[in-house]
Every structure is written in structure tokens, then in C-alpha cells.
Design a protein that fits this description.
By secondary structure, the protein is of the alpha+beta class. It is built from 12 helices and 10 strands.
């Protein structure tokens, strides 16, 4: 019996590392939890959301529920937990952009979640807002955090760069909104203009064909169509991955998932 390949997929706090074995027609997978521990989990329990961690989530939830604040099921607590994971869990996919860069959570918030909850409620928290660091090169603290909408947060990412064109200076996201172009397309066009493929003026126009977008991976640069042919992926699939903002390595290396694979 064939089983759907879950390698590389994340289910709640568990990321699938590799296939383990088959038992009684059920496929089991080697997983790593956000807390750093590994475990073997049945694929059907992952896809049906029945197993969400290595067991640490149950222990943590139990501890929180028995404590005075009982906040484990609130959005604010999940935001708090996410901050800590990004900054201190080396196995988390976001650690590279946070903990590895020296981003930390202040002692006041690390010591007690209620200190963070109190600050949040007194400083503009709403359910439709996200926490944002004013200076993206500094850590999480009352002095460097605020609650903002998704657009403001996107404009504050360290990956954003300011572009000056026709005497105006904006981030790529702001330029995309201003000229009515998809941000990812504009980003690729700007990279191509910086590589000398065409001028910045052409990058901001709609004259450049989308399939001329160039991708660089492991020192090799070619357009989406050429990459698709080289890695054996349908052009439409690779183009959609780039269009939706996938990073280059993931877009070029992740196998195409099909609906033909059967679940365990």
C-alpha cells in the first residue's frame, strides 16, 4: 500500500523528518517537535490533528491550566509562546531569522507570561493585530514592541529594502501598492534590474514578461521555465510557488504533492 509522503510538512508543533515504518497498514513518521524532542507518530494522527506535539504541549497546557492565569488557550498566550520558540528553539524554522540573529525576549516577559499579557492589554492589543518590533534588529521588550496590522508589519521586515524611483523613496511593498503590481513580481524585477537585465524604469513598467523572471540558486541563474525543465517540475507549479512568495530553495527542491497518494 502506498502512503502519502509527509516529509517536510509541519503539523502543529511537529515537523516530519522522514518515513519510519509501516505497522498494520499505517505509516509511521519520524518527527521533531518545536521543543527539540523527536518522536515517531502515525501519519493519520498527524493529518487528522490528533497528535500535535511530542507530548510537551500536553504537559505545558496542563501546567498552565493549573496555574493562576489559565491563559494557555488564548491568542495572547500563543503569541507569547511563538516569541519564545522563534528566539530560543534552534529547531524552529524561524530561528534563523530570530534567535540566530541575536533576537531575544526581555527578562520581564520571560520570567512571567502575565507581565506580557498586562503590557499587551495596556498598549493597544486587539485580536486583529500582531506584535511587531519597532527596530527589527532588537529583541522583544516593552520599549521595542507595538501592535500593528499586517501591512505595517510587512513593511518593517528586515528583508524589505527602500527603492528610490522618479524622486520618491518607498519600500518594495509600498511601491507594489502604489503602482498596482504584485509585490513578489516587483521584487524579482528589481533584482533583475540590479543584475543589469534591464533598467529600473522597465522593472516598474508592465513591459517585462513574467516568465523572464530570473532565479539564482547555488550560483546558477536562469528563468523559471529553464529551472522547471531542469528539476522536472511543471512550469505552472513552479511559477505559482514563486508568485506566492516561496523562498527559492524551497520552491526548487520540494517535491510536487499529488492527490493520487493515499493516506494511511
Amino acid at each position: 500500500m502506498k502512503h502519502k509522503d509527509l516529509t517536510g510538512q509541519k503539523f502543529n508543533m511537529l515537523t516530519v523528518l522522514s518515513f519510519a515504518y509501516v505497522k498494520e497498514t499505517h505509516a509511521y513518521w519520524n518527527c521533531i517537535c518545536d521543543c527539540g524532542k523527536t518522536s515517531v507518530v502515525c501519519g493519520s494522527r498527524l493529518t487528522r490533528n490528533l497528535t500535535r506535539s511530542c507530548g510537551c504541549l500536553i504537559l505545558e497546557t496542563s501546567r498552565i491550566r493549573n496555574s493562576k492565569h489559565k491563559l494557555s488557550n488564548t491568542r495572547l498566550y500563543h503569541i507569547y509562546h511563538g516569541m519564545r520558540v522563534r528566539c530560543y528553539n534552534k529547531n524552529d524554522h524561524s530561528y534563523l531569522h530570530y534567535g540566530q540573529r541575536g533576537i531575544t525576549v526581555c527578562d520581564e516577559w520571560m520570567k512571567d507570561v502575565t507581565n506580557f499579557i498586562k503590557w499587551a492589554k495596556e498598549n493597544g492589543y486587539k485580536d486583529n493585530l500582531s506584535i511587531d518590533r519597532i527596530d527589527p534588529n532588537k529583541g522583544y521588550s516593552p520599549e521595542n514592541c507595538r501592535w500593528v496590522n499586517s501591512k505595517i508589519q510587512a513593511n518593517n521586515k528586515t528583508s524589505n529594502k527602500f527603492i528610490t524611483f522618479n524622486g520618491e523613496t518607498h519600500t518594495v511593498s509600498e511601491w507594489a501598492d502604489k503602482i498596482g503590481m504584485k509585490r513578489k513580481i516587483l521584487e524579482q524585477r528589481i533584482r533583475n534590474s540590479e543584475a543589469g537585465k534591464y533598467s529600473l524604469e522597465e522593472a516598474f513598467s508592465k513591459k517585462v514578461r513574467e516568465h523572464d523572471i530570473m532565479l539564482t540558486f547555488k550560483g546558477k541563474t536562469q528563468n523559471i521555465k529553464s529551472w522547471a525543465e531542469e528539476i522536472g517540475l511543471p512550469y505552472s507549479a513552479l511559477n505559482q510557488r514563486i508568485y506566492h512568495g516561496w523562498d527559492i530553495e524551497r520552491a526548487l527542491t520540494l517535491p510536487l504533492q499529488t492527490n493520487k497518494s493515499r493516506r494511511c
